[in-house]
Task: structure prediction
Amino acid sequence: MELVLTKYFDDENYRHIDTYMKYGGYSALKKALSMSPDEIIEEVKKSNLRGRGGAGFPTGVKWSFVPKESEKPKYLVINADEGEPGTFKDRLIMERGPHLLIEGIVISAYAIGAHTSYIYIRGEFVKPARILEEAIGEAYEKGFLGKNILGSGFDLDVYVHRGAGAYICGEETALIESLEGKKGQPRLKPPFPAQVGVFGGPTIVNNVETIADIPYIIEHGGEKFASLGTEKNGGTRLFGVSGYVNKPGIYELPMGTNLKEIIFEHAGGMKDGRKLKAVIPGGSSTPVMTPDEIDVPADFDSLMKAGSMAGSGGIIVIPEGVCMVRVLEILENFYAHESCGQCTPCREGTEWLRKVVSRIEAGKGKEGDLELILEMCENMMGKTICPLADAAGMPAVSFVNKFRHEFEYHIREGKCLDAEIKI
Amino acid sequence: MAVKFSEQAQREFEEILKRYPERQAAILPTLHLAQREFGYISPEVVEYVSDLLGFTPARIYGVVTFYTMYNRNPVGKYHLQVCRNISCSLLGAKHIIEHLTEKLGIKPGETTPDGKFTLSLVECLGSCGTAPVMQINDDYYENLTVEKVDEILEKLE
Result:
């Protein structure tokens, strides 16, 4: 099977530039600099690469929104604020293959005409940030960054910028605000960042994995990358499997690999021989699925059709024996904690969701609480500047609808229906 | 303690300023640097950073309070931050937290009387494949078990 990203991750020295180059690294950059920016954008469009942060927006199309002429400098910002519960793939890229990201950054910045790039990395990732800084230093020494890169006349500086602990900064406009030294509160769109982004300049914000895919696309062609996945979902993807499985971890697999196969074959199936109860397929915000719903290709369109989302590729596996009310309580605690407080429906809604789910879990649920939860979600979702309210609502709605009997039992009996495993 | 950067920190601060076209973008990195230098962000540190960068203390304070990583109170020599989110919970974070609470004799949010350990519960650390996880100062400790936690604590002097 063709691997785009993780092929050499077992080699400890792959994080260093000499080893990366020994395996052919930075040859895509040389090729890219002999192409025109438009040719690169065309190739990326052909590749059917879609944003790996979670939204799944076609990357080449996003790039084409950047105005060719701009009075203000353009920026390429890398979203390394990996914080969606269940997601842990970008850290792997930054620790094991930082030059994939850096090479991708140079090619992408050249394509959109940016001369400054910031890697916005979550503050807790101290070690990955150090590895990145070191790799950036190596790239400057070889002349892959800085002035007149490889004699092309193209200049680029790359800086690592550490966040400080705020999930919301993974949302691209909040990330931009945070990069500008402010509270990470999302901006109203339009204008979109491609028009007015960081420091007022046209800005592209792309996820780490998205940009790390770029060298392969340039080297092997967009069509080749597209052929690795399914229709309109090009390439491979880093699926992260966590929770109650035998072999949790990151698996690079073709886009559209069957979700059930990822869990039961690649991740080794259920731990302790327990039965599967539920799957959250793309990070904590995506609607939960029941075991009979997971026999589907894990790509953006197929999971959408199945009533959920591919999101960040973080697959969370929940076994029988775990109380779904408690799981939802953990998630709603998280969203209430992370709401930035800017929009009323989200600030108030996430806190009330947390309170109502917590009281059910504590055995103090009231008749009508489930209707109350669903009504609150209706008043939150789609009614705020950014999707955090939706991210809090989607788990709540799907948990209540698909595991209603557990919630009803909890309200009626004041205790868990199925809680052999205390979480 | 007089609030003033060491020569080394002052040099780092000047490097930070060069990275951005606007001075305000240096607020987060400068606060990280200040926390490293002074241990936590006291009201005096807020004043100092405010003077250094030329923004009002209210502006700096707004940033400090928005983000979770800026400590407004002193923390222990070792800051234990245990993930309480879903993937870690599914694999036993609750037991790790209970064990630490019992062993250290403090509740989450508290510091041991000798100032050695602070225990905090945090949201997802982005290490779900090696759950349960905790962060101690800059480092991640993964695939935790109660026994492993004991070993780790023993090594911290």
Notes: The longest strand of chain B covers residues 78-83. Chain B has seven helices and four strands. The radius of gyration of chain B is 18 Å. The first helix of chain B runs from residue 7 to 18.
